Q: What sequence folds into this?
């Protein structure tokens, strides 16, 4: 369904398509064709979202970088005009304490500082042996078990879940609880009831754990957050929100990248062979960057609102207007990446925006990179005959999640 409006400074009348758009059948790795076409033809356009509002959609690579780095572009979801993902996010906006995801400027810096330490390059490098061990253990289990194996439940989900549980100090025995709640939290079309049960339920669980660590400290991030609560730097609710964000962002995204990335490699055997055969860790690292570019799993658009008028290209975004920044078409913008539809693991793709750009760029990117490099390299070398066990057309993709991926991935060898 479309309607018309005059959004551009030029006053040109245009049709407004509904967003999110749907990926084409048979081309699940590609951003939806409509979004791709906008990316090259019209990097800034209007869309209509679930509540009938018509925010801007950003699909061009240069425009994305400009806007994501602009201090007049806010992530504060309480501001009028903010284009919420769904009813669930709108309905919990005043229930959710402020956090790194929803704050700007100094407030954002305050929250971000509290979570960056365990995710620095140096700290993540020190975690590599532990990640390698967890990966090897899970591959041992797969190889000793029946065929086919579901790569999602046997490898893609447990590896990042175990790593983030360990870092945070969340008992892994509770993984079923937090994975289920995180799953609701990343529903693209979550209702008010679902959002309350999902994200709020998880935050309550983490607040209880933080309270426990006040009297029973351990060597983990939850204890560190408890210390900040005791020092009155943040409230218990804020600490719970930080831990919730890390727990959800820390496993769901990487898990989707592992399973979807494996599938993309299986569908491109000559690219897979490059990753499997190389002795050079830089080649594996480059392949991970290319997979992050090619797949851009965060599929619902990063949500922002303009705090002042912003002139960009041929349009003026007015103060108070919503902005949806879609990473996938920007990563397939031919002005930034030649032949973007080709998965080319030798391409220099490091300038991709799969982790976002600007002050809110992903906190956990070094950890995600380390996990992906270790898992792909180990899996392809230890299981060189790995293959998809069902027809490609039968794979169930996560069209209804904020992060794209597959629900299951039956593989044999
Ligand atoms: C392949 C895996 C991952 C992908 C593709 C990914 C993607 C992203 C993207 C696109 C953003 C920017 C959001 C925005 O600007 O609106 C982001 C932010 C964030 N990510 Fe990730 N992420 C991944 C893994 C992780 C991990 C492992 C963690 C933590 C352990 C994490 C924690 C965060 C946090 C806390 C933010 C918010 C940063 C801020 O607002 O300042 N992510 N991520």
A:
């Amino acid at each position: 369904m479309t309607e018309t409006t005059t959004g551009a400074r030029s006053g040109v009348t245009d049709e407004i398509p509904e967003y999110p758009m749907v990926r084409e059948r048979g081309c699940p790795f590609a951003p939806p064709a409509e979004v791709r076409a906008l990316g090259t033809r019209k990097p800034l356009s209007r869309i209509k979202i679930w509540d009938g509002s018509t925010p801007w959609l950003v699909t061009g690579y240069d425009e994305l970088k400009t806007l994501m780095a602009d201090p007049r572009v806010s992530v504060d979801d309480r501001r009028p005009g903010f284009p919420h993902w769904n009813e669930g996010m709108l309905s919990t906006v005043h229930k959710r304490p402020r956090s790194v995801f929803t704050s700007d400027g100094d407030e954002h810096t305050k929250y971000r500082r509290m979570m960056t330490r365990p995710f620095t390059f140096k700290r993540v490098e020190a975690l590599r042996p532990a990640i390698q061990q967890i990966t090897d253990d899970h591959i041992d289990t797969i190889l000793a078990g029946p065929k086919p194996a579901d790569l999602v439940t046997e490898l893609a989900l447990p590896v990042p879940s175990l790593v983030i549980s360990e870092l945070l100090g969340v008992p892994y025995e509770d993984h079923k609880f937090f994975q289920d709640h995180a799953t609701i939290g990343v529903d693209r079309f979550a209702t008010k009831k679902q959002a309350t049960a999902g994200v709020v339920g998880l935050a309550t669980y983490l607040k209880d754990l933080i309270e426990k660590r006040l009297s029973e400290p351990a060597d983990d991030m939850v204890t560190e957050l408890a210390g900040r609560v005791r020092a009155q730097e943040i409230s218990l609710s804020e600490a719970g929100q930080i831990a919730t964000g890390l727990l959800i962002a820390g496993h769901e995204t990487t898990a989707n990248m592992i399973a979807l990335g494996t599938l993309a490699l299986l569908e491109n055997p000559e690219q897979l062979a490059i990753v499997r055969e190389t002795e050079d860790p830089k080649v594996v690292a480059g392949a991970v960057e290319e997979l992050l570019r090619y797949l851009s799993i965060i599929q619902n658009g990063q949500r922002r609102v303009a705090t002042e008028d912003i002139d960009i290209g041929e349009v003026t975004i007015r103060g108070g207007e919503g902005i949806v920044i879609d990473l996938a078409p920007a990563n397939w913008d031919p002005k930034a990446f030649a032949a973007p539809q080709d998965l080319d693991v030798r391409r220099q793709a490091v300038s991709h925006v799969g982790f976002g750009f600007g002050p809110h760029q992903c906190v956990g990117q070094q950890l995600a990179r380390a996990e992906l490099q270790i898992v792909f390299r180990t899996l392809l070398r230890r299981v060189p005959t790995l293959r998809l066990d069902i027809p490609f057309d039968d794979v169930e993709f996560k069209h209804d999640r904020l992060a794209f991926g597959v629900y299951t991935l039956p593989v044999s060898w």
In short: The pocket of protoporphyrin IX containing FE is lined by residues 100-101, 112, 115, 164, 245-246, 249-250, 253-254, 257, 297-298, 302, 327, 354-356, 360, 362-364, 367-368 (CB under 6 Å). The longest strand covers residues 302-306.
